[in-house]
Design a protein that fits this description.
Layout: H1 2-48, H2 55-65
Length: 66
C-alpha cells in the first residue's frame, strides 16, 4: 500500500512539473513576442530619426510627443 501511495504522489508531482513546464513555455513565448514587437518598434523609430540631425532638434521632437 505504501508503494502504491508513493507511486500516486510521484504521478501527481510529474503532473505538477508538466503544468509548470507548460506555463513556463507560454511565458517564454509571450516574452519572445514582446521582444520581437519592441524590436520592430525600435527599428521603425530608428528609420524615423534621420541621421545628422542636431541633438537639440531631437530633444524638441521628444517633448512634442509627450
Amino acid at each position: 500500500a505504501k508503494i502504491r501511495r508513493m507511486m500516486d504522489e510521484n504521478k501527481q508531482l510529474a503532473q505538477r512539473i508538466d503544468g509548470a513546464i507548460q506555463c513556463a513555455k507560454q511565458e517564454v513565448a509571450n516574452l519572445r513576442a514582446e521582444l520581437t514587437a519592441t524590436g520592430h518598434r525600435l527599428a521603425e523609430l530608428g528609420e524615423l530619426e534621420e541621421p545628422g540631425e542636431p541633438q537639440e532638434h531631437q530633444q524638441q521632437q521628444q517633448q512634442n510627443h509627450h
